[in-house]
Amino acid sequence: MQDYKDVLSEILIDAESLQMRVKELGAQINADYASEDLLLICILRGGVPFMVDLSRSITVPHMMDFMAVSSYGAGKRESAGSARVTLDLQTDIRGRNVLLVEDIVDSGHTIAAVLQMLETRQPKTLKVCALLDKPERREAQVDIHYLGFTIPNKFVFGYGLDLDEYYRNLPFVGVVDLEKYDPSF
Ligand code: IMP
Ligand code: MG
Questions:
Q1: How far is the C-alpha of 153 from the C-alpha of 77, rounded, in Å?
Q2: What is the pLDDT of residue 15?
Q3: Cβ(174) to ligand 1 under 6 A?
Q4: 99-151 tens-digit pLDDT
Q5: Closest ligand 1 atom to the C-alpha of 154?
Q6: Which residue is catalytic, options 106, 143, 164, 177?
Q7: Which of 60, 66, 80, 110 has the smallest CB count inside 10 Å?
Q8: Do 80 and 86 contact (CB within 8 A), yes or no?
Q9: Active site residue 106
Q10: For ligand 1, is residue 46 a contact (CB within 6 Å)?
Q11: Number of C-alpha atoms within 13 angstroms, CB side, residue 64?
């Protein structure tokens, strides 16, 4: 894999702005779920850094669980046409307040499929918290109850989002320069 500095065209959201926004979202969640039970569900793998930081700013007692979804009909840097659960929850969500934590809502197919599947398990409430929203790409309608940032239609990486599985660890969200990025490296 190339050094990220060689394929980065710009930093879209810097680390400080991300941390500030995550704290604001945490405060909103604390207010909305005060005296409620809460279960955070992270959609692997992109949601991990976001959920970890978010969780640390949530003071309402909460549990965490994880699920993974794979996309059909997707190119390497495109997202799903439909989705299939590849790793299911360990927790029974019936009657619980569930908050899904996702890195980005792009076409919307992933989150729409997950919501539809989880709804059948009869949670008390089911909401979505997404770090990023790319509305220009939307194909499936989804309500995002807690949103970090709306971004333009560009391929981004860092803070959970991957460049062919690399660089999820970066503390900022950057835009890939597709002219410079060579996947065969
Ligand atoms: P959707 O089903 O099209 O909404 O796709 C959502 C998934 O596609 C996200 O969870 C990401 O894993 C991936 N994705 C979409 N856009 C980007 C991007 O710009 N960078 C990295 N991953 C992305
Ligand atoms: Mg994802």
A1: 13
A2: 98
A3: no
A4: 999 999 999 999 999 999 999 999 999 999 999 999 999 999 999 999 999 99
A5: 19
A6: 106
A7: 60
A8: no
A9: yes
A10: yes
A11: 15
**Does the C-beta of 132 come closer than 6 Å to ligand 1?**
no
Task: State both tokens at 35.
Answer: 């005296």
Q: Which residue has the tokens 């002219």?
A: 179
Three-state SS string across 39-71, please?
Answer: EEEEEECCCHHHHHHHHHHCCCCEEEEEEEEEE
pTM over 0.90: yes
Q: What is the pLDDT of residues 151-172, one digit of tens each?
A: 999 999 999 999 999 999 999 9
Q: How many CB atoms lie within 10 A of CB 72?
A: 11
Q: Provide the b/e sequence for 136-174 (b: ≥16 CB within 10 Å).
A: eeeebebebebebeebeeebbbbbbbbbeeebbebebbb
Ligand nearest to the CA of 152: 1
What pLDDT score was predicted for residue 76? 55
Supply the pLDDT for residue 2: 95
